Structures are given as structure tokens and as C-alpha cells.
Amino acid sequence: ALEVHLASRPKGVPRLENFAFVETALPAPAAGEVLVRNHVMSLDPYMRGRMSAAKSYAEPYALGEVMHGGAVGEVLESTVDSLVPGDFVLHGFGWRDHAIVRADAVAKVDPAVAPLGAYLGVLGMPGLTAYAGLLDVAEFRTGDTVFVSAAAGAVGSLVGQIARLRGAKRVIGSAGGPEKVQHLLDLGFDAALDYKAAPIGEQLAAAAPDGIDVYFDNVGGDHLEAAISAMNVHGRIAVCGMISLYNATEPTPAPRNLMQLVGKRITMRGMLVSDHAGRRADFIREVGGWVRSGELRYTETVVEGLRNAPEAFLSLLSGGNTGKMLVRLV
Ligand code: NDP
User: Fold this and answer.
1) ipTM of model over 0.90
2) What residue stretches are annotated with the Enoyl reductase (ER) domain (predicted)?
């Protein structure tokens, strides 16, 4: 099998030399295991954290070992009754073309219900993050004005659309560049801000003259500071990620306006999607229904071939994707 290993830990922005391709011989699956041929794998910003040795919520990748991540593949050989060759399964052994996986660590998926990539995006981890983060962590209510950053990405594009479909008063998104801003308007955002064109704080103040009630933070830094300044009394912030800091080599400055949390009685709450598995059924019913009816749209950026996965990952970190970043292996 061909595997991508962590060759060295990046300092700052990752480089191609941090990754290595290694050919390995796969054993036959032992009792309770299946052999899977990966068709599509996920690239996610949290993988940048796992490339570092620093303690975080996700275990660091081991140096010189194969990397991990979400993937969907086809069962080639099975030792259990519950899975047969030809079944498709979702599992955590991406960054390789074939994997031996414990059958109790995979979830069967149906390619007739949704394309395989959807199980890694709109109907998968990023989708649940958007759904639970907006509705439960940020406690979204009908009539709220919502601001979401990295809004043209996998999570952000769904946050904005779920808010609109759930009756937001106004949905504002930020992204880098004119094409992404146009994409947000096409998705039904009321306002879209290009953070590369002008300071985000000024743009947000102009786009939200009546303030915002919810901020879904994917970026941190200046975006978080802008959101706090625009926030209404009793506003709520779901802290999902802070991608503007992931490649930082020095401690980054805090938002300078945190004191506003006091007067505005702002709630700011961090989240991990793994805490929200209990919402999966609601999420699949509601978001799956919107996908079927065409009311919610999702975009994917698909890169072909495992050999191109490291470059695609670097591209994800610098905004080369619109919607979910995927690598197709088959
Ligand atoms: P995206 O599809 O949004 O891809 C990342 C995007 O981040 C890029 O496309 C780029 O878009 C943007 N970006 C990169 N650098 C910067 C920067 N310096 N300032 C502003 N934007 C930047 O990824 P996901 O949807 O998978 O993830 C979005 C966020 O959600 C991340 O912070 C991630 O860590 C977090 N997350 C958290 C989870 C949790 O459980 N807490 C679960 C899943 C995701 P652009 O071109 O607009 O700059």
C-alpha cells in the first residue's frame, strides 16, 4: 500500500518536505478486521495541529509514521458477517490507499443515498460541526443576525445556510477574495466580506448596522475582535477554530476588546464536534432533507491522487479550497 508519513514537524507554514511517501506490504486482515481500498479522503485544518508535538485535543501524529484522517473506502476482504466485499465504509484511516481496519471501527455508508465525499463533508464531521455549533453551542434563535468566518469553507458555508434556513434575520460571511465573496452571495448570504480587501472590523460594522447576535468563529484574531465589537447585548460566540493562528510561531495578540464581554454579557463557548454525536440523527434528518430538496447547497474541491494530497493540504491552509477539501484516490 502507498502511505503518507509525517517526515518532520513543520515550523510555521508546513512544506512538502514534511511529508514522505512510503510503500508498505499489507498483511491479510486478521479476525475482526477488514481490508479497505480508500476511494476518497478528507483534508481538515485540525491535521495541522496533529503535525505538531504540542499537546492539544487531538493526539500528535507520530514522527516517521503514517498520518490519519477521515476516509471512505470499499471493503475488499472481510472476516466478519456484518461487512462483505463491495460495501462502502467511513473510517479514520486516510492518508493511504489501502488500510486494514477493525470492523467495529468503521461505519457502513450507502453510495446510493449520497456521493461518497458527502459523508466526509456536508453529511459528515464538518456538517455536524456546523449544525451543533450553530444551534447548540451558539444557541441560535430565529431572528438572530449571524456572522461566520471562513464562510466559503466546509463548515462555514453550512453554518450560513443553516442559519438562513432556520430563519436568521441576516447572515454575514467573510472569506478571502472576490470569487469566494460572490460564492457566498450565490449561496444566499445577505452580505459577504472579503477580509483581504479591507480591515474586517470596518467591513463588519458597515454590514451589520444593527449589530450581530451570533458569531461562529473559524478564524480567531482580527475576526474575533471585529465580532466582539459588533456584538449585541447577550450575544453568543461559538469558538470552533482559529485557523489564522495555526501556523503561528509566536504567541499571538489577544483580541484587544475582551472587556466588552462584560457590558454586553457575551457568552463565548468552545466546542469539539466529538461531544455532539447525540445530535447526529437530528442533523442527518434536517440537513439531509435540505440537501435532498435543494434548499442547501454544498461545494467540494476535489484533488486527484494520493500523491497530490500533501500539496492539497497546504492549499487548504492557504484558502485554495471552496467548500470541502477532498482527495479522490479511485
Ligand atoms: P475550511 O474548508 O474552512 O478551510 C479552511 C479555510 O480557512 C481556507 O479555505 C481559508 O479560506 C481559511 N483561512 C486560512 N487561513 C486564514 C486566515 N489567516 N484568516 C482567515 N481565513 C483563513 O475548513 P473547515 O471547514 O474544515 O474548518 C473550518 C474551521 O473549523 C477551522 O478553524 C477548523 O479548525 C474548525 N473545525 C473545528 C471543529 C471542532 O470540533 N471544533 C471541527 C471541524 C472544523 P479563505 O480563502 O477564506 O481565507
Assistant:
1) yes
2) 14-327
Assess whether 237 and 111 both reside in one domain. no
The pick from 125, 172, 243 for probing ligand 1's pocket by mutation, whose C-beta has the most ligand atoms within 8 angstroms, reads: 243
Burial 285-307 (b: 16+ CB within 10 A, else e): ebbbebbeeeebbbbbbebeebe
What is the extent of the structural domain holding 205?
Answer: 125-274
Residue 252: its pLDDT value, please?
Answer: 87
CATH, residue 247? 3.40.50.720
Domain boundary residue, one of 274, 290, 311: 274
The angle formed by the CA atoms of residues 107, 122 and 20, to the nearest 5 degrees, is: 70
Q: Are residues 91 and 201 in the same domain?
A: no
Domain assignment present for 52? yes
Q: What is the pLDDT of residues 59-81, one digit of tens each?
A: 999 999 999 999 999 999 999 99
3 state DSSP class of 247: coil
- Tell me, yes or no, whether 101 lies in a domain: yes
Q: How many angstroms separate the alpha carbon of residue 153 from the centre of ligand 1?
A: 6
- Looking from the CA of residue 126, the nearest atom of ligand 1 is 43
Is 105 in the same domain as 37? yes
**Residue at a domain's end among 259, 274, 289:** 274
What single-letter amino acid sits at 11? Answer: K
Ligand 1 site residues, Cβ closer than 6 angstroms: 44-46, 126, 129, 150, 152-156, 175-176, 180, 218-219, 240-241, 243-244, 271-273, 316-317, 319, 321, 325
Angle at 283 between CA 108 and CA 149, to 5 degrees: 115
Per-residue pLDDT at 55 exceeds 90 = no
What is the average per-residue pLDDT within 218-225? 98
Specify the number of domains making up the chain: 2
pLDDT band at 124 (very low <50, low <70, confident <90, very high): very high
Match 465504509 to its residue by C-alpha cell. Answer: 89
Examine the pLDDT at 297 and tell me if it is beyond 90: yes
